[in-house]
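# nightly structure sweep
# worker-07 picked up a monomer target from the shared queue
# config: single-sequence mode, recycle default, output format = structure tokens
# input follows
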Amino acid sequence: MRRVFITGLGFITSIGNTKAAVEQSLRELRHGMARYPAFEADNSPVKITAPVREFQTDAEDPEDWVIPAPYTIKREQLRSLAPNSLYAACALQQAIADARLAPEDVSNENTGLYAASAGSPGILARQVNRMNQLGVMRCPPLGVVASIAGSVQFNLVSYFKIKGASTGFASACAASAHALGFAFDEIALGRQKRMFVIGAEDGNRETILPFASMRALSLNTDPDTASRPFDKRHDGFVGTGGGTVLVVESEDEVARRGATPYAEVLGWGQASDGHNIAISHPEGLGLAAAMRRALASAGITAADVDYINAHATSTPIGDASECKALRSVLGEQASRVAVSSTKALTGHGLSLAGAMEAGFCALALKHGFIPGSAHITELDPACDGLNIVRTTEAVQPRIALNNSSGFGGANVCVVLKAP
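# output follows
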């Protein structure tokens, strides 16, 4: 098994569109929540989201979108993009530059791309409505690849001339964590030398608001407290979008290029709840199993773990389930290991979340800090016995776990180590 490292990062997020801005937000606990004009209608009980700044992607014609410098997308490529794939393309440009990859490093048979996104419900709805009203031959010819769930990898594999392994993952909020896990396997088993791991979501009305019918979104109208994982008064998650890219490489490639890694990926684990299509197992059994498998894969124990970036979305049921899983796996280490949920700052990125939060862990491991769990005024009793850190700590974690959970009880845990 070959060693695997994260060597490049790219972020388009609600808390910053560069790694420097993201790190500053994590250190200073600056959140990205705001009242969202698209939610202001009287029939929307939800008012808060965590928008991506600087980009404007509401126009139906992508040629009318506003894309900030220094990003450039060719006109012919815009026609097949959704906001999610635009964010991902810009984050990938960042990550390639951050890892100092040459063009021949990007486009070759040993470099692949794994991505996760739910697709673009807004573009899909417009496509179907236009087909029904005007006829199928009056629809944009690239509307299909712009809207369906594989849009991110379809576009980026073509745009960046990727010749290695490529596919997409559709396990909802665990999807980009699955992408990272299977990318680790590709490299550790010697099938690829480098993988781009991508999570991306539109983060607009059509992507987020349907979760209100599940009673999963926060009805809090205060941006400063709407997303508060582990707090006694948490009442649902705040949605967000954007894109994150991780450059993952083999040890040989790191040595050949003289790259400086952010973190080593030690291993990962996954397991299913076998319980409910939308609600976490009340005892957190699936997530606990995924964490134990991740520790075994990495060859470590709970005593080696310093920090856990929890999946905790700010829903009472989900947060409580994860707390039980954490206590079960950590045992006597539960009161020592630092735990936080950065979704208090970013909101919940759905299939973007796993990759985005793995990127946050990589920054923390490289630069020596543990991000706090913001907006907690009174800790939920479900968190008893856990070390939920409420402020950012200037300490050097050596090993971090990143948890992700999705629909159907899909659970993923990734183990990262400081370089």
